[in-house]
Amino acid sequence: MTVAYQTPAAPADASEFDLSEVLPTCKPLGGLLDIEYDWDRVEVPDSLSWFEKRWSTRRNPLDFSGVWRFRELLPFAPDDMIVTVGEGQTMLRRSDRVAKYCGLNAGCLHLQYEGLNPSGSFKDNGMTAASTHARMVGAKLAACASTGNTSASLALYAGASGHFRCVVFVGSGKIAFGKLSQALDYGAVTLQIEGDFDDALMRVREVCDEANIYLCNSVNPFRLEGQKTIIYRILEGMNWEVPDWIVVPGGNLGNSSAFGKALIELKKLNLIDRLPRLAIINAGGANTLFRLYEHDGLRWNDGEPDEELVGRFYGEMDAENRRANTLASAIQINRPVNLYKCLRALDATDGVVREAHDPEILDAKAQVGAGGFGCEPASAASVAGIKALRAEGIIAPSDRVVGILTGHELKDPDATVNYHRGDGASAKREFSNAPIPVANDAAAILKALEGLT
Ligand code: F0G
């Protein structure tokens, strides 16, 4: 066996599977798998700063990639199998304006802009890894269900690499246009399922198991290996110092699960000396994790979480026909597939979960936007969450906080324009910056500019 293998996330099950196996996903404990490594047989650098040397060899596409330049920390693929499109050229920016908005001291808030990836969201970090595994096993067709960004990313990798074709499942009427346009333009077979994301994900899992199609949702453990590198790049941006908090929006909980795994491994490998605390922010209209974790006390419990509690929760949800509903459409998810792995991450990092409602999310988004760059609504949940945790006194003003901005501003221009104009579901808000109608006349224009000149 190579140094890497697949193993169930449930610690009670010590089975090991070779990387060449594509395992069915409809199993107990969510059928969740991890990629594990025999670290004694991997040459891991002594310190994280070792990775800086890759900046000088970035003509090598593997060293250019913000994922694969850390390949010693996700050593599952031979170099010549790696599928990369130059993902992960993202950045950590100090943001004093947003810090002030959240109630943090100047210099204490950094935002990690993952929207700068080739397809405009953090998904590329994971899709390069899943695409690599798909290539390793010779997959000809890959699929995913998506609220939009996963499908955009998979479509991009299928189109750019040419190693496989792809089919994407999206819910009806639930997808931001920027994202749908990407899937279409990159040539994905795009199925609009009658139903929402939760329905689409259940169907794609069934279809993939049945028809031997390679599944690229975050239930795919290879994807999460790629998403670990967001943590490495954050640490690099912080000059390898561990922040006090990392705050991330929670949808299907792939990112939070990957972050937990990355941090646990780094600590085990003595590459960091302590773990930051993780805060996961649900949208108020899609708050399964918040309710289960903060209200019902669901915990990782050494790998034996209370699955009956979760079953009852979903049973009630179905009986009441509660569907996820938020303007942050990327995280409009009621049945997060990585729930159990995410509990492990919360356990390791003394984590907390909060919910942010749409008006708070959109205000936070406007503040991020006003600082330049911007983000899509779901991403701003992290900023709204930081503000709420600061107000509660859980985050201190002097804590060093990193907020993850998961997707690009232009993914969902409707949400932005509606907020600023006070159209659609958004009433005009404090930071609305509506366009000003003005006559086709210089005098009228100058009048409109009074006070600015
Ligand atoms: N932010 C954005 C912009 C997303 O697109 C997603 C997930 C999340 C946050 C949540 O991340 O699932 O790791 O907790 N989007 C998925 C999709 C579901 O289909 O594009 P998570």
From TrEMBL:
Top enzyme class: lyase
CDD domains per record: Thr-synth_1
Keywords: Lyase, Pyridoxal phosphate
A Pfam family the protein falls into: PALP
Superkingdom: Bacteria
Start and end residues of each Tryptophan synthase beta chain-like PALP domain: 84-407
Enzyme Commission identifier(s): 4.2.3.1
Cofactor(s) needed by this chain: pyridoxal 5'-phosphate
NCBIfam families, per the entry: thrC
Family per record: Belongs to the threonine synthase family.
Protein name (Swiss-Prot/TrEMBL): Threonine synthase
